[in-house]
Amino acid sequence: MTKIFIDGSQGTTGLKIFERFSKRDDIELLKIDDGNRKDAAERARLINESDITFLCLPDAASIEAVSLVKNDRVRIIDTSTAHRTNDGWAYGFPELDGSFEEKIKTYNRIAVPGCYASGFNSIVYPLVKHGVISPDYPLTCYAMSGYTGAGKKGIAQYEDKGRNDELDSPRQYALSQEHKHLKEMKAISGLSRVPFFAPHICDYPCGMVVSIPLFTDMLLKKMTKTDLQKLFAEHYNGKEFVKVRELGYSESMIGSNNFAGRDDMEIEINGNDDRILITSRFDNLGKGASGAAVECMNIALGLDKTKGLNLGE
Fold it and tell me: Could you give the residue numbers annotated as active site?
């Protein structure tokens, strides 16, 4: 039995990780009393007794939790922003490249990607790696997410019967262009220019679509949408968690909540000879958070990476 401790088990991501363990008989969950959830000594005891500790905490608390580790065998899987671009940490998106999966297998420190960053990097990393765009391409990322990505306070706001009417409509945010995911979006994809990022929070619980538009005359080599579909299909060939759809898969619209409750994602290529739109659709709490964390745990333990997770067709 693998001993697991979830530090921050009452938060949205922690609860969703716990849900994914509900039918598993190969793990032992170490639980902390509610009154001790902020007690550093008790947290330290459980962290160091565990084989794997999930950190579902704000950045500062995650950094503090890592400092409590004294047992060299403990593996940390951090869902916060704190360590995603740090040396010595594996970035928890194994499908991007074989080197990412190898680090997840061998490192004791694993940082789970941000939800928006997962969609962005799933598209932009292959474009840079295969020489389709220059690292200084002026990228724009347009994205829609369900309100569960806003955490407990955001969820309570959206589910309040007396809420403000403005919440009935999509709301654009990150207006200062300083969103916390931008650092990993730039670093992981190998960009030299920070992308323009326009995320929206919407009145539905789960699911997101991240979109990247490309002007074909600005690509490093001439490519049609057929060429790009083939490139993405080859890049993600055999990857159960990333499905690259055939051209024309969506006739006219792409819904952003269709992957709610799933732990995989899909990529589509649409557009025309001049302008191509690449989209990544997934659940912000699945492949964008807790599903990705459990996938990383499965890989770290040498298990079937899909164990306990929901992958659709």
Answer: 115
Complete DSSP assignment for the chain: -EEEEEETTTSHHHHHHHHHTTT-SSEEEE---GGGTT-HHHHHHHHHH-SEEEE-S-HHHHHHHHHT---TT-EEEE-SSTTTT-TT-EES-GGG-HHHHHHHHH-SEEEPPPHHHHHHHHHHHHHHHTTSS-TT---EEEEEEEGGGGHHHHHHHHH-TT--GGGGS-EE--TTS--TTHHHHHHHHT-SSPPEEEEEEESSSS-EEEEEEEEGGGSSS---HHHHHHHHHHHTTT-TTEEEPPTTSSSS---SSTTTT-S-EEEEEEE-SSEEEEEEEE-TTIIIIIHHHHHHHHHHTTS-TTTT-----
pLDDT digits (tens, 9 = 90+) for 225-259: 999 999 999 999 999 999 999 999 998 999 999 99
